[in-house]
Amino acid sequence: MDLVIVLVVLALVVVFVSAPFRRTPAVAAGTGAGAAGAPGADTQVAELEAAREAKYREIRDAELDHRTGKLSDADYEALDGALRAEAIEILHRLDTITER
C-alpha cells in the first residue's frame, strides 16, 4: 500500500514538473493574434528569431571547430557555406514577416 502511494505521489510530481515542457510555444509565450494583423505572426517571428540565433550559434561552433583543428579547411568551407545559406534564408523569411 505504501508503495502505491509513493508511486502516485511520484507520478504527480513528474506531471507537475514537466508541465512547462509540454506547453506549445504560443501558450508559453502568452501570444495569440499577432500585432501585424496575421494570426500567429508574433509566434512565427519568435520562432524565426530563435532559429536565427541557433544558426548563428552553429556558425560560431563551426568556426571554433575549424580553429581547433576538428574540421579541415575543405569541410569547414562546405559547412560554413551551407550554414550561412540557411541563415540568409531565415533572415529573408524574418524580413518578409516583419514587413507586413
Give the tags.
mainly alpha, 0% strand, 100 residues, 79% helix, single chain
Task: Describe this protein's structure.
This protein has 100 residues and is mainly α. The chain has 4 helices and no strands. Helix 3 packs antiparallel against helix 4. The longest helix has 27 residues, at 41-67. The radius of gyration is 21 Å and the shape is flat. The N and C termini lie far apart (61 Å).
Write the layout of secondary structure elements.
Elements: H1 2-22, H2 25-29, H3 41-67, H4 73-98
Quick summary of this structure?
The protein has helices spanning 2-22, 25-29, 41-67, 73-98.
User: Taking all residues together, what is the mean pLDDT?
Assistant: 84
Backbone shape: flat
Structural class comes to mainly alpha
Give the low-pLDDT segments. 31-36
Secondary structure: helix percent? over 70%
Biggest sheet character? none
- What is the string of helix and strand elements? HHHH
- Strand content is under 5%
Oligomer designation: single chain
Total count of helical runs of at least 4 residues:
4
What is the strand tally? 0
> Separation of termini?
61 Å
Rg (CA only): 21 Å
